[in-house]
Specification:
Layout (H helix, E strand, L loop, with lengths): L5 H9 L4 E6 L5 H16 L6 E6 L2 H16 L13 E4 L2 E7 L3 H5 L6 E6 L7 H8 L8 E6 L7 H6 L5 E6 L9 H11 L3 H6 L13 H5 L15 E7 L6 E9 L5 E10 L9 H19 L4 E4 L4 H14 L4 E4 L5 H13 L3 E3 L4 H9 L19 H11 L15
Amino acid sequence: MIQLTPKQIEYIENADHRWNIKSGAVRSGKSFVDTAAVVPERIIERKGQPGLSVVIGVSKSTIERNVLQPMREIYGQKRIGQIVSSKNTAMLFGEEVYCLGAEKVSQVAKIQGASFKYCYGDEIAKWNKEVFEMLKSRLDKPYSCFDGACNPENPTHWLKEFIDSGADIYLQKYTIFDNPHLPREFVEGLCMEYEGTVYYDRLIEGKWKRAEGAIYRKFADEPETFIRPVARENLSRIIIGVDFGGNGSGHSFVATGFYPDGNVQGLMSRRYMNADYPKGIDATLLSELFLGFLKEVIIAYGIPGKVYWDNAETVLGQTIRNACRRSYPQISVMPALKKRIKDRIEHTIRIMGAGQFSITKDCETLSKALQEAVWNPKAKDDERLDDGSSDIDTLDAFEYTIEREIGGRARIKTFDL
């Protein structure tokens, strides 16, 4: 039996506007009420009426994970079908529903001009703004409406401007404490992970708060408390990240160790500045420097399994790969994913807050980079300051080693309510 919280019941009773938006904390129950009750009811009551029913998310994969699969667990596979890639549709309660990714305006442009009788929006604040602007003109039926949920971002974000615009909007705000189904230890753990950061204000208290000051405040305040010895016998794998800098910058190498319990440890970091070499650092010298770093890591901790390099510099990356292949053919060398910087930052903050992150004394450049990292005070949106005053190269190199962990297993069990 589905048990709704008082907050979720309040939404069902009051969400009768053209735009119905829930904004607030993670794990607060915003999406559960939609997948359990709101979306099915909206689709069924408009069945047979003119117009399209649409689900829009960051991507089709996030729609499947955040919307369709939770609905399938409640209503079964017969009522909740799979997305047909060739048509971008899925059968939901006997209705053909378009499922579109909002990361690119071209995805929604495929049905530009169509009229929407219903639209559900997942993670709205992460959409391309143009997609949202296009959506406004599509809800043109007397019975058209939109339901959606988001986590807060910067108070100057385009979605916040729309929410405050005076349009026909029902807005419901959530904090993590609005979900009584969450175990106390889970809430306490999540609060600890984000404590002292902008993410606490946004993802715990549900506030649209500006990012400012030190990014990794907990680390910057007491960097020495993060230094720990390496349990070499317990390391499950070692990954190296490589970032290539320009003429006024440097090339950075970071080796990161991973443990079976989810702990992450910076093992070794180096930065080589072009200005320190009379002729600069060419591809040949860069390969020599990298092989020297790799040898140090192997002697101290063992052979890394993978090396990820900055995929914006293909020639240098291939040079590194070829040099590594000749000496250590068992090591896989490939381009980094380069996920969104904001996502990489949030993941790092979480593992720090959870007590899952540490470094060795041989990570001086990484330690300094984490201490100096600050938000750009002039940027409209969240942006890491990159004006040469801090070591962005080393941060990037480190993040290439952990970015594949983003969205993976969490330290604390999560719950769907």
